[in-house]
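To: structure subgroup
Subject: Chain for Friday's discussion

All,

I'm putting the inputs and outputs inline so they're searchable in the archive.
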Amino acid sequence: MHIQILDLPIQVPPVTPGTNQKMSQASFASWEKERDEFNIPKDPQLCSESDVNHWLLWAIKEFNLDGFDAQSFLMTGKMICEMGKEMFLAQTPPYVGDILWEHLDRLLRESSSSSSIPP
């Protein structure tokens, strides 16, 4: 009997529900277009409740997050950012929170890196 041992990665990035895409491959480019079209601030911390709701509705459609109710997050972007990852994930369904948090984290990093570039 011969057993083959495969070199598999220890941790696999989460898969976007409804697709076979790994999160690292998922494109968030359509959010930039949406954000520009609806004049939503680039910095998530400056988003109003309406902006946050728009982002959540976009994410539900973009990532097939059926079953997640955007109305459960009636708060500003600053309030969501101040929650921190653990509290945010505790208030969202499994995997859905991971996807949303990864996008939020990416938006925060992009916002802070663009604001630190001198004019």
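Points worth raising on Friday:
Residues 43 and 109 are 9 Å apart (CA to CA).
The longest helix spans residues 96-115.

D.
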